[in-house]
């Protein structure tokens, strides 16, 4: 769903490129674009922050299937999975996050 929303928002972002949005400064900082970044718009539409959407997208695009399933099941946070998704696939498969050990360790320690 996020990718579809991105496809809708990117052309709008391209139109905004190069347009001045800081002509009237507000306080110490110049006024930014009220339109926001594509990731922020997509994240808001999905009910998460833009950063969280970006991390979830990384997990889906680069994460091994077991890691994606762990996030979907709520066993692993998006942030932790995004960090693991940056590893090579063979290493991702061996992480406690992908193997489900994270959930069991949490039960023992929590």
Helix and strand layout, with pairings?
Elements: H1 2-16, H2 38-46, H3 50-62, H4 65-72, H5 78-85, H6 89-94, H7 96-99, H8 101-109
Describe the structure.
This protein is mainly α and 110 residues long. Helices cover 65% and strands 0% of the residues. It is built from eight helices and no strands. The protein has helices at 2-16, 38-46, 50-62, 65-72, 78-85, 89-94, 96-99, 101-109. Helix 2 (38-46) crosses helix 3, helix 3 packs across helix 5 (78-85) and helix 4 (65-72) runs antiparallel to helix 5 (78-85). The radius of gyration is 18 Å and the shape is elongated. Residues 29-34 have low confidence and may be disordered.
What attributes characterize this protein structure?
single chain, mainly alpha, 8 helices, 110 residues
The whole-number mean of residue pLDDT values reads 77
For the termini, the CA-CA separation is 34 Å
Low-confidence stretches: 29-34
The total beta strand count reads: 0
Q: What share of the residues does DSSP label as strand, in percent?
A: under 5%
Task: Give a nutshell description of this structure.
This protein has 110 residues and is mostly helical. The chain is 65% helix and 0% strand.
